[in-house]
Amino acid sequence: MHPFKPRRVSHIFTEIMIALSKFPTFRPLRPWWGGDLQTIRNVVMRRRTDLSPWPGHRLQVELADGDRLFAMLHEPSVAAKGPTLLLLHGLTGCEDSLYMRASTAFFLRRGWRVIRLNLRGAGPSAPHCQGSYHAGRSEDLRAFLSWLARENSAATRDGVLLMGFSLGANLVLKFLAEGDFPLPVPAAVSVSAPIDLQGAWQTIQRPRNAFYHRYLLSSLHREFRQWPVKLSADLKRKVLEARSIYRFDEIWTAPRNGFSSADDYYNRCSTAGRLEDIQVPALLIHAMDDPWIPPAPYLAARRRLKSPLRILLPPSGGHVGFHAADDPQPWHDRCAEVFFREVVPVAVSRDA
Question: Is residue 81 part of a domain?
Fold first, then answer.
């Protein structure tokens, strides 16, 4: 199979299209005001979206090194016409993360075919992987799309739209910047992507973010314990004794994935400096009050970029929060749908 090279779209045409997009204004749902409350609402409320109206079909993809990726394919109630939407989760997440389930239901109700992908070593993929995911492992996404193009022509006939959250969103942007697609990717959306990984680490380790830092580090340790890797007792002890995400990445993520250090990993996998290489329409959504990820790289990118990108920076929304007062549906999902429908010629029906 020859890789699909994205066509260099007309920037003027794309900018006109996205400038006319009717994105809803974000107004926080009371009493979840501010970035912190917007961020923790999903955890506090624990509302697990019911996907039983759309039974999923399990996909298993064996990678070249023997590891396996697992995904769940859902068909809408009315047969879909148009691209399939592929969702990628964030750090310590999986197909069953609350935001993944909510977005899946949102798009299925509107007639989209949806795939929830577990990154390497996450969720049901964990028992079948010696390796682990990271913010720049775009080769796994490419391998999954190559398999999908070969094995499921119905799901790929009109291409695949990408939507990533947090770490998965940075992975999507890196994949787009590389431009080597095994099938057409008409457009993509990123939500709360840490496009500057060094800046994200420096932000999460601040004293005011101690709760978040402990929560994420505890989740990373839990994931580490689940992976069926054969390691020395000394290395296991060092990883589980890591008292910061930076130290975890220094001891485990970086050397495990061919990086010389955590700094090397952050520098090589950050996408802030690669956004101008993206040649397909993409919407980047990020809240100015995200307590985990600073907005400065987004502001700088919006000033300098001349590419088919649109950057939405609402004043509030937190990290993958965006709980709005005017609609119970996630605001980022509503913006994504507006963007997809206006940039990509799709024929799916609303509220299918």
Answer: yes
Query: Whose CA is closest to 133, among 203, 68, 50?
Result: 68
CA dist list (Å): 167 to 185, 194, 240? 19, 6, 21
Note the helical H segments in the chain. 11-19, 35-45, 98-109, 138-151, 153-156, 167-178, 197-204, 210-226, 233-240, 245-248, 254-256, 262-269, 296-304, 331-343
DSSP string across 31-48 = T--SHHHHHHHHHHH---
Inside any domain, residue 82: yes
Structural domain includes residue 318? yes
Q: Residue 189: beta bridge partners? A: 163, 283
Number of structural domains found in the chain: 1
Q: Residues 133-192: pLDDT tens digits?
A: 999 999 999 999 999 999 988 788 899 999 999 999 999 999 999 999 999 999 999 999
In whole angstroms, give the CA distance from residue 89 to residue 117. Answer: 7
Q: Following DSSP, what letter does each residue of 146-180 receive, concatenated?
A: HHHHHH-HHHHTT-EEEEEETHHHHHHHHHHHH--
The rounded distance, in Å, linking the Cα atoms of 235 and 251 is 8
What digits encode the pLDDT tens for the residues 261-312? Answer: 999 999 999 999 999 999 999 999 999 999 999 999 999 999 988 778 999 9
- Burial call 68-85: b when 16+ CB within 10 Å, e when fewer: ebbbbbbbbeeebebbbb
CATH, residue 161: 3.40.50.1820
235 falls within a domain:
no
Whether the full predicted model's pTM is greater than 0.90, yes or no, is yes
**Cis omega before residue 297 (within 30°)?**
no
Residue 328: which domain range?
A: 11-196+270-343
